[in-house]
Write a structure and sequence with these properties.
It contains 16 helices and 24 strands. With 478 residues, the chain is an alpha+beta fold.
Length: 478
Amino acid sequence: MTNDQLVDLIDDLIKQPGESEWIEFKHNFHSENEIGERLAALSNGACLRNQMYGYLIFGIEDDTYRILGTSFKPRKHKKGREELENWLSTRLNPRIDFQIYEFDYEPNCPLVVFIIPSATDRPVSFLNVTYIRVGSVTRRLQDFPEKESKIWRKHGKPFEEEVAKENVSTSDVIKLLSAETYFDLLDLPYPSNQNGVIEKFIEEGFVQKKKGYTITNLGAILLAKNLQDFDTVNRKSVRVIVYTGKNKVETEREQIGKKGYSLGFLGLVDWINARLPANEEIGKVLRTETRMYPEIAIRELVANALIHQDFSVKGFPMVEIYSDRLEISNPGAPLISPERFIDGYISRNEKLADIMSFCEEKGSGLDKVIFYNELYQLPPLGVEVTDNRTKLSLYSYKTLNELDKKQKIKACYQHSCLKHVSNEKMTNQSLRERFKIEDQNAAIASRIIKDTLDEKLIKEDDPNSKSRKYKSYVPIWA
């Protein structure tokens, strides 16, 4: 890589929310063993996060991400009488072809970057111990068996290509899968015979020609007339639970989807909307009812839960309706940082996403959800991520005074993100419009902006600007 390419790479990496499973910053050298452990951990982390490479960078302060430069010279460094690169390489198993670059980020500011290939068919170990990054901490992989099993499974077939039912006839395929739904959704002419349907299904990966025909998980999860006909996807049915209050103490109703996602999606969204509380709007003449939550936001969130779930993790997509909120969750942790949901898009199920494009705009992220969330004057979108599940929540209406400090900061950050992806900038005025703050109370918006700046979620677009009135702000990663 050229010096300019390396500088561009560093600029991209420091825009990430921070250290992660596949990125680590260090100021200076500590020990050879520490580097070996990090190489193994970052390779394994890159595999889990579907990244081609992991990165270990020296010369950047890990708390502030300030570029300071480093005195570390790995090309000249030796462990005993052995060159460092060879010493590391021979102690990694399997051996991975990591690259070391020493370069000047700017004059008198040397950096070092280790570019580490993702683990492929098994976890990478150093001195016979496997490691993984958990957030910004390096841990032994054996303490996280589910992460380890995911790496072992990576070399196998994607879930979508695995067998759902094999050795079936042409008539069985037509009986089990809804061909009419597929051709209607994509606005394609229906073939004149069953062979035409089968040919299209083979082209799309729904069916494979072997001894008879094999229906894939992709075909089953999307087009099954009844998911219970397929053991491999039956447990991935969507579940909707309606509770009577703000907790799980009393269940009012529960519904389990039986159809493939393409067949059942619109009916699912309608069923959810019919059970949501309504707000009453009183106009000059008519009294009308409006749903508590924007339907288009619900549609996008449900589609995301279906498309971005991790099929290798136990569990199913779930929608839970409480008196004060709506929670939509799916198995698996996301492939991108939650802070970048609004502008980033990586799907672990590309074929599924392509076919389901009728129900969400691929690449739109959550900008549409946040736009309508603000339009309805709702609290900020809630995001909660664990190792095994991702949950997004819509909350019922609250006045600005009813929001706590953390909610105000989160709403301010999401507003800045929405403005940024719309090629605009957040200002005091735009935030007042978001919260319906009157002009004479501009100081309230200023306080929220200051609190969000203090949390390092946003930054001034032009730090050199002396005008307080016309200051604008962008997300910290922009």
